Amino acid sequence: MTTSDPTQRTAEARAAFLASLHSVGAQGDAELQARAQDIHTSAAALARQEAGVAKQTDALAQQTAQYQQMADESRGKLKEIGDVQNWAEMIERDLLVLEETMRIVDDEAAQGTGGNGKVEGRRRRWL
At residue 13, does pLDDT exceed 70? Predict the structure, then answer.
């Protein structure tokens, strides 16, 4: 059944061409739909990850604030320790001066003279 009618041949060629275009379009459409689905899936995963990172960032900020508070408290305590140490060193120096003074007094008393050349019968207690 060969037809030589040009109109029919044109109609058949047109139908074959449209079928070919439809096939190519359907294939491209399927690929684009798959890509769009991947993009939506990835976007959802990224949104979940972003929420997780934001939550972890908030937790880290809270922990950093706690560490900062602890560092500030420790700095204050170290300052207090430094003040106590300074106070203790001053007391130690004063005690050394008193000890040396008492040694001098004891030496003079052992020699039988006070600071003015007189013999003192008893030693004074300074404390």
Answer: yes
> What amino acid occupies position 37?
Q
Handedness of CA 16, 22, 25, 26 (dihedral sign): negative
pLDDT band at 17 (very low <50, low <70, confident <90, very high): confident
**Which residue shows structure tokens 């060193």?**
89
Reduced to 3 states (helix: H, G, I; strand: E, B; else coil), residue 2 is coil
* CA distances to 4, 5, 25 from 1, in Å: 10, 12, 32
- Distance, in Å, from the CA atom of 58 to the CA atom of 8, rounded to the nearest integer, reads 73
DSSP 44: H
pTM over 0.90, yes/no: no
Contact partners, residue 109, CB within 8 Å, separation at least 6: 120, 123
Three-state DSSP state, 76? helix
- The per-residue pLDDT for 47 is 93
